[in-house]
């Protein structure tokens, strides 16, 4: 057993760790830790010396310790190999629906600070914690051994790495990466880029939700896909024979959605415009749709952002309700842990009051199964959505 340096934590942290929460904040530490190096493994204990867990340490971050295990065990190549193998096995059921899926989802796969996505054999990775950075070579070797990828591209989050005290260099770390990679999802084709795409390249977490939402789209329906990104929701609508209008302000998104429309042999209207401006204009012209999809980027990355984010979400949903025909459907999503299902339902109730229309809740949605929600780790439940019918 390795001789880890000891970190003593307050009772409030001990109580959270006893429930298998995996973070220790800086203000929860009671002993002198200035001698501990960033990325170093530490033994966490309470003020009576009782063992609580082993994790890696970084005084640069308010999340100072990220727990790797609640057992007294060695942290070595065998430890990481077991975690990687288990994560790969959990994704087997996805492969019949798509050749693109998340392989490792950070804390939710018990590998804090590591994200790995597989796009038709091309891996996009993010190493976003100092502790995981110390095991970079081990992780890459394990991915090569167990997934035999065509290539691996490092697309680590620059902002997060800066907080952790790490430099960021997005680059190929193994093999040769294609400029554009073709993937499939439920018989729909997408062209995506590990190099230029958002996140690691594509919004895999919405896979199940795209399929669920599409069940409410019929032939000849009029569909509006706002914040369309690569066009996932709208492409499902086109497959069902609907007329779809895609909207996004990002030039890269517009390029992607046009390419994906052509790739699948469809035709559609695509508008490059700020979503809020577009929705304001649409409401003023009294256009009506059978389905409105609103999938914005995260408005509330921290608790400080929540008030403004809720204001923005209220505008989006009230606009969607106004644009929905009698009996029309609106799907709205939040990809922030701070605005979850309860907040979305409150916003929907406000929209009902404002519009004088009844709102029927058809679906409560979360991320697909390759983005696990671990009950002990609340932040792993970051994507929420509702599908409503406007009466």
Descriptive report:
It is a single chain. A hairpin with a 2-residue loop joins β7 and β8. It is globular and about 70 Å long. The protein folds into three domains: 65 residues, Archaeosine Trna-guanine Transglycosylase, Chain: A, domain 4 (Roll); 99 residues, Transcription Regulator spoIIAA, CATH 3.30.750.80; 188 residues, Rossmann fold. α6 runs parallel beside α7 and α9 packs parallel to α10. The chain contains eleven helices and 19 strands. Helix content is 30%, strand content 28%. A seven-stranded mixed beta sheet has the order 15-14-13-16-17-19-18, with helices on both faces. A five-stranded mixed beta sheet has the order 1-3-4-5-2. It is an alpha/beta fold and 391 residues long.
What is the H-and-E element order?
A: EHEEEEHEEEHHEHEEEHEHEHEHEHEHEE
The backbone outline, from C-alpha atoms, is globular
Number of structural units classed as domains: 3
CATH architecture of the largest domain: 3-Layer(aba) Sandwich
Structure summary, number of beta strands: 19
What is the secondary structure topology, with strand pairs?
Blueprint: E1 5-8, H1 11-18, E2 23-25, E3 41-45, E4 51-57, E5 63-69, H2 77-90, E6 100-105, E7 114-119, E8 122-127, H3 130-133, H4 136-147, E9 151-154, H5 158-164, E10 171-175, E11 181-185, E12 188-192, H6 207-214, E13 222-226, H7 232-239, E14 243-248, H8 251-263, E15 269-272, H9 275-285, E16 289-294, H10 306-323, E17 324-334, H11 341-355, E18 359-366, E19 384-390
Parallel strand pairs: 1-3, 8-9, 13-14, 13-16, 14-15, 16-17
Antiparallel strand pairs: 2-5, 3-4, 4-5, 6-7, 7-8, 9-10, 11-12, 17-19, 18-19
Helix pairs in contact: 2-4, 6-7, 9-10, 10-11
